[in-house]
Every structure is written in structure tokens, then in C-alpha cells.
Amino acid sequence: MPYANCLEILKDAQAKGYGVPMFNVLDYESAAWVIEVAGEEGMPVEIGFYPGFAPSFDPVVAALTVRELASRVKAPVGLHLDHSPNFATIAPFLKHWDSVMIDGSSLPYEENVKVTAEVVNICHPMGISVEAELGHVGSGSSVDDIQNSDHYTSPEQAAEFVERTGCDSLAVAIGNAHGHYVAAPNLDFDRLAKIRAAIDIPLVLHGGSGIPDEQFGKCAVMGMSKFNVFTDLNVGYAEAIKKVIDEKGTSRGMLGAMLGAKEATKEVIRHKMRILNPKGLRLY
Ligand code: 13P
User: Fold this and answer.
1) pLDDT > 70: what percent of the chain?
2) What's the distance, Cα to Cα, between the start and end of the chain in Å?
3) Would you say the CB of residue 131 lies under 6 angstroms from ligand 1?
4) SS3 of 95, please?
5) Which one-letter DSSP state was computed for residue 161?
6) From the CB of 227, is ligand 1 less than 6 Å away?
7) Is the pTM above the cut of 0.85?
8) Domain total for the chain?
């Protein structure tokens, strides 16, 4: 299917009750393998691009690669620009992206509203959708970031934030955090239910690695639509390469390592996708 619009992908997920994984990719192989698995599973997917990866994976090459690979599978594939702190970071991507995140979640509330509304006002006339974040999804290396509900999203504030900014989707903090978790995540599902009832745009879960499968799937059942995953893919990929080299040595070089790591890395991707289709819908 031709490359698809991210917001359309999320609206379909919200209407039908499944979750769309967004994998942040770091090179051609990780992008190609995510799209390959999406095709095999018939599962819509978003390819996430973190602006900080631009020095090692040229953004234009990445965008054109995703479009070409998307045209070869049946499932819709979107392209999203992840965590951008300001419009200056987003601007160089506007030609090739139709979905961006403005992350003002570390700012005081009023400043988050201001920077988000500014980005929305520029992006919407260009047909680009905007994800914002309210509450702050911190680092899994900090127990405070994981467990202190002061960082979590307020359902009442979420309704006001969406109204004032016009953002298209909202990343929420409910006990999720980025990277490895030093304390087991225990997501606040009561809060998720209240947020879901307070706003009707797609909800996004960042920090999708290391969350127990049943909690991950329950979020999809409760109406969360997009699930960001990086660490599980990044580490799974590295571990798969290490295993090949440990078992077979390096005589076949990087080619042997990459090809040898492919199936194991694809299984990490497949596992996440299957959890996010809890009703077992035949999608594509
Ligand atoms: P993880 O690295 O914890 O999977 O988080 C990814 C993420 O949220 C990217 O936006």
C-alpha cells in the first residue's frame, strides 16, 4: 500500500480498538524489518524518526526509503518525527514528514500550551498533524520519574490543553518512562480511563519497552492508539548481532552479522505488534 497518513492510521485504530506500534528506527535494516513484519502481520505501523539520529541516518534518505518500502506491503505505513523540543527542530523535516511531535512536556504548563499551539498553527495549513505531550514521560532510570504521580497527566488539564492547542494526538504519562525501567512499571489505568473519557483524540504511550505484555495490551483495550518503542528494538537488534558473532565469529563480516540478526530482531517487532491487536482483528 502506498505510504499512509499517520493521523488516518491512528483514527482507524481508535475506531476499531487496536494499537499502532511506532518503532524508532536507526538504520535501513531496522526500518526495512519493521515494515516487513507489518506486511507479514497485516498490521498498520508507524516508522518513528528521532531528530537526534539525523547525523547517522540521513532524514531525507530515511523518508524516501520508508515511502519505497511502504509501497511493497499491504499494511499502511506512516512516518512520524519523534520528540522535537521546538519548531526549529521540526522545520527541516516538513518537506518529507506529515506527522510530528512537539514535546513541551518539560516546560511549565502555559509554555507547553504556547509552543504546542504555535507548531499546530504552522503545521495544520501544511496538512501535517501534531502530537503533543502533557504530564512528563521521564526516564526509566529514575524511580521518581516512574512512580511520582506529580509527573502524570491530569485528565482535567488534558481536556483544556487539547482545546487550547488544537493538537491531533496526545502523549500521556501514567507511570510509563523511556528506556530500561529500574522499578517495575505499574501503569495507572484509572487515570488512563479518565483521560480517555475527557478527550477524543488518539492517545499515545511513550516508553513502550519493558512494560509487561498484559499492561501493554490493556492500554490498547482501553483506547490507547499509538505505542512508541525504541529500547526493545535497539537492544534486541544488538543482542541478535552479538549472538551471531559469539556463535559464528566474524569471518562473514557485517553482512553475516546483519543477515544472521534479521529473524531474531523481526521476532522482537512481531511480539510487540501482536500484543497490540488484542481482539485478533484481521486488519490488512
Ligand atoms: P522506549 O525506548 O522506552 O521504548 O521509548 C521509546 C519512545 O517513547 C520514543 O518516543
Assistant:
1) 100
2) 10
3) no
4) coil
5) H
6) no
7) yes
8) 1
